[in-house]
Amino acid sequence: MRQLLYLFLLFFFSIFLACEEVGPPVNLSGGGTGGNGGDSSNQRIVLMEEFTAVACINCPKGHEIIADLLDSFPGRIEVVEIHSGDLAEPINDTDPDFRTVDGNDLTNYLGPFPFQPSASIDRKLWEVAPGDFQRLVDRSFWSTFVKSELDSAAKVKLTIEKDYNSSSRELNVILNAEFLEDISDIVNATILITESGMVAAQDDGPVEVIEDYVHKYVLRDILTNYSGELINASTTTGNTWALSKSITLPLEWNADNCRIVAFIAKAVGNYDVLQVVGTPVN
Fold this sequence. Notes:
It is globular, with a radius of gyration of 25 Å. The chain has one domain: Immunoglobulins (Immunoglobulin-like). The strands form six sheets. Strands 9, 14, 15, 17 and 18 form a five-stranded antiparallel beta sheet that branches. Strands 2-1-3-6 form a four-stranded mixed beta sheet, sandwiched between helices. The protein is an alpha+beta fold. Helix content is about 20%, strand content about 35%.
């Protein structure tokens, strides 16, 4: 009898436990995006500014390295392709011209570049050989320096709010910054536009020309000064700051292929980028 009672109680408790309701999982880590644009969260994102050109025979190899990095670290890298110098003149008369005044100004500000392709990784001075520090570095260093920056801590959280009117082609952008630690340096904010998906002839090696080469992340315009705009507010932990800019996109730009890239960088002594964020225009 005791054995039957024990079996009955065991069966009863088994049914009770099996019917206990389990609630939905709770996300304790937060997440999501800020506003209707990009959000850097607290994760470090790296800015790559590549100095490239259509008549640069090694530039496609640089583009391949960037593509591999983007595949390896999705959402962690923002790319800006700056076409400047003698090799940036269009190969064919019918090709679009990717050169800009802003691109030339950036070349002088960060460079001049020693060769093409070369790239700035968060605008830092990198030691490429004992005692030899360079801001625009050879493609053989890109992966190493990008990975080094990805491991660093974010000092600023950035978000982008945007409003694009497809009829008027007017784009309004607000860059929001929240400082995650005290910043003692003078810092500037930059907002720019890139465009991808444009076709133009590109040299690939000493003899081959790819007539239908698809160019990506091409610098179109810098909405601020090319060196950025001064953040004239307290940059201590917890403080916030915002910058608004507007532009009417030229008709030849494909808004669906355009991207807003914004970042904060040191302004005096060195130009180290503290954080970057990006989001599509449309």
